[in-house]
Amino acid sequence: MTSFEEDETEETATCLHMTFYHPCQQDKMMFRCLNFCKREQVRADETAKFGRDSNVCHYNLVDTRVSRIQFSLQFYRKLNSSEFCFEIKNMSKKTKLTVDQTELGYLNKIDLPWKCIICFGDYQILAEIQEGEAMDYFETHLHLAKVPILQESCLPSLQPIPEKGIFPSLSPFQGKSPIEIDENESC
Protein backbone atom coordinates (compact mmCIF):
# COMPACT_ATOMS: atom_id res chain seq x y z
CA MET A 1 0.00 0.00 0.00
CA THR A 2 1.16 3.51 -0.73
CA SER A 3 0.98 6.34 1.77
CA PHE A 4 -1.74 7.92 -0.38
CA GLU A 5 -3.96 4.87 0.17
CA GLU A 6 -3.36 4.95 3.93
CA ASP A 7 -4.11 8.67 4.33
CA GLU A 8 -7.26 9.69 6.16
CA THR A 9 -10.21 10.57 3.96
CA GLU A 10 -10.41 14.33 3.74
CA GLU A 11 -13.75 15.64 4.98
CA THR A 12 -15.24 18.91 3.96
CA ALA A 13 -16.28 21.33 6.68
CA THR A 14 -19.61 23.09 6.91
CA CYS A 15 -18.85 26.68 5.95
CA LEU A 16 -20.78 29.74 7.01
CA HIS A 17 -20.31 32.48 4.40
CA MET A 18 -21.11 35.93 5.80
CA THR A 19 -21.20 39.09 3.70
CA PHE A 20 -21.14 42.31 5.76
CA TYR A 21 -22.42 45.78 4.89
CA HIS A 22 -22.77 49.08 6.77
CA PRO A 23 -23.52 52.44 5.06
CA CYS A 24 -20.53 54.11 6.80
CA GLN A 25 -18.03 51.25 6.35
CA GLN A 26 -15.64 53.37 4.26
CA ASP A 27 -15.52 56.25 6.77
CA LYS A 28 -15.69 54.47 10.12
CA MET A 29 -13.93 51.22 9.16
CA MET A 30 -15.91 49.16 11.70
CA PHE A 31 -14.93 45.94 9.89
CA ARG A 32 -11.16 46.52 10.06
CA CYS A 33 -10.68 43.69 12.60
CA LEU A 34 -12.48 41.08 10.50
CA ASN A 35 -10.44 38.72 8.38
CA PHE A 36 -12.08 38.90 4.95
CA CYS A 37 -11.66 36.44 2.08
CA LYS A 38 -9.91 33.78 4.16
CA ARG A 39 -11.59 30.72 5.62
CA GLU A 40 -11.17 30.29 9.37
CA GLN A 41 -11.77 27.12 11.35
CA VAL A 42 -13.88 27.23 14.51
CA ARG A 43 -14.08 24.24 16.85
CA ALA A 44 -17.56 22.71 17.06
CA ASP A 45 -17.67 23.16 20.85
CA GLU A 46 -16.98 26.91 20.61
CA THR A 47 -19.59 29.61 20.22
CA ALA A 48 -18.80 32.15 17.49
CA LYS A 49 -19.41 35.57 19.05
CA PHE A 50 -19.77 38.86 17.15
CA GLY A 51 -19.53 42.21 18.92
CA ARG A 52 -17.42 45.10 20.17
CA ASP A 53 -15.50 43.36 23.00
CA SER A 54 -12.33 41.91 21.47
CA ASN A 55 -11.59 40.00 24.71
CA VAL A 56 -14.77 37.93 24.30
CA CYS A 57 -15.66 38.11 20.60
CA HIS A 58 -13.56 36.46 17.92
CA TYR A 59 -15.42 38.55 15.30
CA ASN A 60 -14.83 42.12 16.44
CA LEU A 61 -16.89 45.08 15.14
CA VAL A 62 -15.19 48.40 15.94
CA ASP A 63 -18.24 50.54 16.66
CA THR A 64 -19.41 52.04 19.97
CA ARG A 65 -23.03 51.46 18.93
CA VAL A 66 -22.45 47.69 18.77
CA SER A 67 -23.00 45.73 22.00
CA ARG A 68 -20.06 44.08 23.74
CA ILE A 69 -21.53 40.79 22.46
CA GLN A 70 -24.07 41.52 19.72
CA PHE A 71 -24.96 37.95 18.75
CA SER A 72 -23.61 34.42 18.91
CA LEU A 73 -23.71 31.42 16.60
CA GLN A 74 -23.68 27.84 17.87
CA PHE A 75 -22.89 24.94 15.52
CA TYR A 76 -24.85 21.74 16.17
CA ARG A 77 -26.18 18.56 14.60
CA LYS A 78 -29.92 17.90 14.51
CA LEU A 79 -31.15 14.98 16.61
CA ASN A 80 -31.25 11.66 14.71
CA SER A 81 -29.84 13.35 11.62
CA SER A 82 -26.55 13.96 9.89
CA GLU A 83 -27.61 17.54 9.12
CA PHE A 84 -25.52 20.34 10.68
CA CYS A 85 -27.10 23.68 11.58
CA PHE A 86 -26.37 26.97 13.31
CA GLU A 87 -28.39 28.56 16.05
CA ILE A 88 -28.28 32.37 16.29
CA LYS A 89 -28.90 34.13 19.59
CA ASN A 90 -29.31 37.86 20.20
CA MET A 91 -26.94 38.83 23.04
CA SER A 92 -27.74 42.57 23.01
CA LYS A 93 -30.04 44.03 25.67
CA LYS A 94 -30.42 47.28 23.68
CA THR A 95 -30.71 46.26 20.02
CA LYS A 96 -33.12 43.82 18.43
CA LEU A 97 -31.70 41.40 15.88
CA THR A 98 -33.69 40.52 12.77
CA VAL A 99 -33.16 37.27 10.88
CA ASP A 100 -35.09 37.63 7.62
CA GLN A 101 -38.50 38.72 8.99
CA THR A 102 -38.08 37.29 12.52
CA GLU A 103 -37.24 39.81 15.24
CA LEU A 104 -35.21 38.52 18.18
CA GLY A 105 -35.08 40.29 21.53
CA TYR A 106 -32.39 39.77 24.17
CA LEU A 107 -31.49 36.05 24.57
CA ASN A 108 -34.01 34.95 21.92
CA LYS A 109 -32.60 32.35 19.54
CA ILE A 110 -33.63 30.55 16.36
CA ASP A 111 -32.12 28.19 13.83
CA LEU A 112 -30.28 30.09 11.14
CA PRO A 113 -31.91 29.44 7.73
CA TRP A 114 -29.61 28.13 4.97
CA LYS A 115 -29.66 31.58 3.41
CA CYS A 116 -30.84 34.66 5.26
CA ILE A 117 -30.21 38.32 6.02
CA ILE A 118 -29.26 39.29 9.57
CA CYS A 119 -29.83 42.94 10.55
CA PHE A 120 -29.20 45.06 13.64
CA GLY A 121 -28.91 48.84 13.67
CA ASP A 122 -27.49 49.81 10.24
CA TYR A 123 -25.66 46.49 9.86
CA GLN A 124 -26.69 44.01 7.16
CA ILE A 125 -25.20 40.52 6.95
CA LEU A 126 -26.02 37.96 4.28
CA ALA A 127 -25.47 34.49 5.78
CA GLU A 128 -25.23 31.38 3.59
CA ILE A 129 -24.49 27.87 4.84
CA GLN A 130 -22.47 25.50 2.68
CA GLU A 131 -22.89 21.90 3.84
CA GLY A 132 -20.02 19.69 4.93
CA GLU A 133 -19.33 16.45 6.82
CA ALA A 134 -16.76 17.41 9.46
CA MET A 135 -18.10 17.07 13.00
CA ASP A 136 -15.24 18.58 15.01
CA TYR A 137 -15.20 22.02 13.43
CA PHE A 138 -16.85 24.38 10.97
CA GLU A 139 -15.44 27.21 8.90
CA THR A 140 -16.36 30.84 8.47
CA HIS A 141 -15.65 32.78 5.31
CA LEU A 142 -16.26 36.54 5.60
CA HIS A 143 -16.85 38.92 2.71
CA LEU A 144 -17.41 42.68 2.44
CA ALA A 145 -20.26 44.01 0.30
CA LYS A 146 -19.75 47.23 -1.63
CA VAL A 147 -23.48 47.91 -1.95
CA PRO A 148 -26.36 47.38 0.50
CA ILE A 149 -27.52 43.80 0.81
CA LEU A 150 -31.06 44.97 1.44
CA GLN A 151 -31.98 47.25 -1.42
CA GLU A 152 -34.77 49.64 -0.59
CA SER A 153 -37.77 48.24 -2.35
CA CYS A 154 -39.74 50.66 -4.40
CA LEU A 155 -42.43 51.72 -1.95
CA PRO A 156 -45.49 53.65 -3.02
CA SER A 157 -45.53 57.25 -1.89
CA LEU A 158 -47.73 58.03 1.09
CA GLN A 159 -48.98 61.14 -0.67
CA PRO A 160 -50.55 60.86 -4.12
CA ILE A 161 -48.43 62.43 -6.84
CA PRO A 162 -50.43 64.59 -9.28
CA GLU A 163 -49.93 63.80 -12.94
CA LYS A 164 -48.70 67.35 -13.62
CA GLY A 165 -45.96 66.97 -11.00
CA ILE A 166 -47.20 69.92 -8.89
CA PHE A 167 -47.48 69.18 -5.19
CA PRO A 168 -50.29 70.81 -3.19
CA SER A 169 -48.94 73.15 -0.52
CA LEU A 170 -50.58 72.05 2.75
CA SER A 171 -53.31 69.49 2.31
CA PRO A 172 -52.77 66.79 -0.27
CA PHE A 173 -56.29 67.22 -1.61
CA GLN A 174 -57.47 70.81 -0.79
CA GLY A 175 -61.06 70.08 -1.76
CA LYS A 176 -60.11 68.13 -4.89
CA SER A 177 -60.52 64.44 -5.49
CA PRO A 178 -57.41 62.41 -4.83
CA ILE A 179 -55.57 61.20 -7.90
CA GLU A 180 -55.45 57.45 -8.09
CA ILE A 181 -52.10 56.00 -9.03
CA ASP A 182 -50.92 52.47 -9.52
CA GLU A 183 -48.37 51.62 -6.82
CA ASN A 184 -45.95 50.40 -9.49
CA GLU A 185 -45.98 53.81 -11.21
CA SER A 186 -44.39 55.64 -8.28
CA CYS A 187 -41.06 53.91 -8.84
TrEMBL record:
<keyword id="KW-0391">Immunity</keyword>
<dbReference type="Pfam" id="PF00498">
    <property type="entry name" value="FHA"/>
</dbReference>
<dbReference type="InterPro" id="IPR008984">
    <property type="entry name" value="SMAD_FHA_dom_sf"/>
</dbReference>
<dbReference type="InterPro" id="IPR033621">
    <property type="entry name" value="TIFA"/>
</dbReference>
<dbReference type="GO" id="GO:0033209">
    <property type="term" value="P:tumor necrosis factor-mediated signaling pathway"/>
</dbReference>
<dbReference type="GO" id="GO:0045087">
    <property type="term" value="P:innate immune response"/>
</dbReference>
<dbReference type="GO" id="GO:0005737">
    <property type="term" value="C:cytoplasm"/>
</dbReference>
<dbReference type="GO" id="GO:0002753">
    <property type="term" value="P:cytoplasmic pattern recognition receptor signaling pathway"/>
</dbReference>
<feature type="domain" description="FHA">
    <location>
        <begin position="49"/>
        <end position="121"/>
    </location>
</feature>
<keyword id="KW-0399">Innate immunity</keyword>
<protein>
    <recommendedName>
        <fullName>TRAF-interacting protein with FHA domain-containing protein A</fullName>
    </recommendedName>
</protein>
<keyword id="KW-0963">Cytoplasm</keyword>
<dbReference type="GO" id="GO:0051260">
    <property type="term" value="P:protein homooligomerization"/>
</dbReference>
<dbReference type="InterPro" id="IPR000253">
    <property type="entry name" value="FHA_dom"/>
</dbReference>
<comment type="similarity">
    <text>Belongs to the TIFA family.</text>
</comment>
<dbReference type="GO" id="GO:0043123">
    <property type="term" value="P:positive regulation of canonical NF-kappaB signal transduction"/>
</dbReference>
